[in-house]
Amino acid sequence: MNPKTETIILRARRIVTMDPANPVATHAAIRDGRILSVGDLDRVRRYGDAPVDERFADKVLMPGLVEGHCHVMEGGVWAYPYVGYYDRVDPAGKTWPGLRDIGGVIERLRAAERGLPPGKPLLAWGFDPIFLGARRMNAADLDAVSPDRPILVMHASFHVLNVNSGLMARAGIGPDTQVHGVLRDAAGQPTGELQEMAAKFMALRVAGTEFWRAATMPGALDRFAASAVRAGVTTVTDLYNELPDETVDAYRTATADPAFPVRLVPAYNPSGLAPEQAVQRLAELRTHNTERLRFGLVKLMTDGSIQGFTARLKWPHYFNGRPNGLWNLTPDMLYSYLSAFHRAGFQVHTHANGDEASEVTLEALERVLAEAPRFGHRHTIQHCQMADAAQFRKMAELGVCANLFSNHIYYWGDAHYTETMGPDRAEAMDAVGTALAAGVAAAIHSDAPITPLAPLFTAWCAMERRTASGRVLGANNRISRQQALAAITLGAAYTLKLDHDIGSIQTGKQADFAVLEDDPTDDSLPLKEVRVAGTIIGGRYHSAPATG
Amino acid sequence: MTAMPPIGVTLIGGFLGAGKTTLVNHILRHDPRRRIGVLVNDFGAINIDADLIASRDGDAIRLTNGCLCCGIGDSLSRALIDMLAQPIRPDHLLIEASGVAEPWRIAELICAAPEFAPPMTLVVVDGSRIQTQLADRYIGDLALSQIESADLLILNKMDLVPAQGDLIAWMRETWLGKRFAISEHGAIDPELLSADHNPSRFRAVRAPAPAAADRFVGLRFVTDVPFDAGRLHAAMAAMPPWILRLKGIVTLAGEVAPQSLQFTPGRWSMTTLHDRAAPAGSRIVAIGHRDRADASALDRLLTDALQTADLQTSR
Ligand SMILES: [Zn+2]
Hints:
The complex is a heterodimer of chains A (about 550) and B (about 325). Chain A is an alpha/beta fold and about 550 residues long. Chain A is about 30% helix and about 20% strand. Chain A has a domain of about 140 residues: Diaminopimelate Epimerase, Chain A, domain 1 (Roll). Chain A has 18 helices and 23 strands. In chain A, a hairpin with a 7-residue loop joins strand 1 and strand 2. The two termini of chain A are about 45 Å apart. In chain B, the strands form two sheets. A seven-stranded parallel β-sheet of chain B has the order 3-2-4-1-5-6-7, sandwiched between helices. Chain B contains ten helices and twelve strands. About 10% of the residues of chain B have low confidence. The termini of chain B are far apart. With about 325 residues, chain B is of the alpha/beta class. Chain B is globular. Chain B folds into two domains: about 190 residues, Rossmann fold (3-Layer(aba) Sandwich); about 100 residues, CobW-like, C-terminal domain (Hypothetical Protein Yjia, Chain: A,domain 2). The interface between A and B is large, with 56 and 47 residues. The structure holds zinc ion. Zinc ion binds next to loops of chain A. Chain A: InterPro entries: Amidohydro_3, Metal-dep_hydrolase_composite, Metal_Hydrolase, YtcJ-like.
């Protein structure tokens, strides 16, 4: 035993280890940032006496949560005011109450407007028109905030914008504008709602494109990490990034600081290079790996999103008759990138929302695996929202993992039921139960900032399958509390090939914990109500800012 | 900003591997304009001949393939905004669209900026694969949409097609009025790209996917009687709102050359087809919403535009 290393014993009300061989404990000894021993005080003292840290004596510890699909952009959006329907907590712990009518949106925008220098466009995000009744927000509403200063409000889907008259005047949007996606009222006047690429382009010319660079702005990484701490998360992904040198440098600098509270796992977007060169680039990035920053994942995008009607669906396609969605890669190109990364030994995550996209992905995976069989590839389908039992059986056959978008059930489940998919397929979406029954290694995710970063809430969604209106969507696909907790710890770690190092509390693993006020295994408490006090990463405590 | 002459735009669409980059290089080699900017939005490394661009004071910018989840901030919009903010702008812009892009979406975006002239959309098709692509259950609808978007369809890799004549005849018959160019290695007559070839501001409505076919209705209007030009103009202006797209080859009274007629809501055009032998009479097809379609109303509207309409109404 190295006498220089320091051992510390954490005492907790309860430690939920997620290690089935040793499921609960009260003490954990930590040395060199790793877990030395887990059990009662007697057991953990067998390595020698050590000081007992009593700060967590009334807390419950569980493994640091793992968010297997989110984006650094979560830290970017909070540079702007949130005007959504649901309560949302920012990285600093401030609760932004959900806005239930247009008046509330206007009031919040007014407050934000007062802080801006003259002439600077006012940008806001998260607006959700679905719940505000039949009337849609229009330019006149926003003119009440300011008729002159350009105002641009992004919807929660990030697909649609609302703008005010000042912005429309500067953008040249008027009654004569013949551009697709400019919504009009009965009198032919543009309403200020802009829906398609061309219409949004006109608005962005005036409002500027800074919002879309927000993830690379100073402060974004720290806000992202702070969001993780307040959710009990110690390992985050940045699941689609071209990883230019400046970004790599920023990630290396941030994660080299022991005070930075998360392990970061970026997934490389290879589209800027031909497959062979992209493989080389990722191999090169991997040489920078540390325990806090791990390159090696690659992500391919096949289709768009269901709520944006850009996901690729199989027959009978969209419930409301909208045309099928868009490909982001043709099946041929998917195969060529997949094949190159697979043969080079990398793990490939593929975004596939619609069932046609997951089908194309499975066909490409099957072909690649027949040509170049490989054990333990753990290729993963991300979102995988419409996969049915047959697709999950195929995934199990091929050793493919699924990371399912359980938060969709809550946030868009009602819209899926009535508009995008219809009752049958809406009830069968994000079928974690079916996936697990088929033997697929499964995780669940938030895709933050698309939905809030909060794995305990995501786990509640997968357990309860309740929509925002309270409808239960496919009760037979509910999973148990234990399965839900596994999906946000070891399950997610498995899809990142980090389950040997994180995801459970056992000897040799990283000393990463979620510090909770409540016991997540208490059946009387919904998982979404479990309060997070902070996180411990590599043995170091980070307290979450008080929520207020 | 309106004092400057508009920036011409050539938009090049088509699947990866169809020969878009070869075509871009070919245009760069033969286009007489001085300052050409190139935006490449496709996957893979940029393969544009850098010397060709450098020798013309231009720039080649590769756009990243963004996440469709947040498609609002797509890289093409950003690149165009940044480009227009520069003090020195290109005289002409070549955009190599992504292989999965529907070029009409990009054309619309270009039309939304007054600094740009309406784009000319070239779609490059791999002649040896197009029929397979159109029949493919995953990308067939995209292949169709790309062809529909083209002002000029470039049939490339024709050296690999055994029955060239059959393919060309089939394409011409299937896409009446579409302009074609045949090319073997991206080489086309630069004349074809000149401005007087009527780039259109039209938006090609997505062809109904098979599953959605029951929501749309296709109508056909065939006549041997020539149209009266003035009345046809009036009919186009009075198209009912349920019509999504109407197109065809029409014969006007007193004109030998046939006309290509194109209509989408809010916009229409008629172009003389000098290079085609006059067909007998006129053929028009329309696509509209099935639930609101009124075939007899459309029939009446078009019949009233015929040269003989007076005779019929005064009967
Ligand atoms: Zn994502």
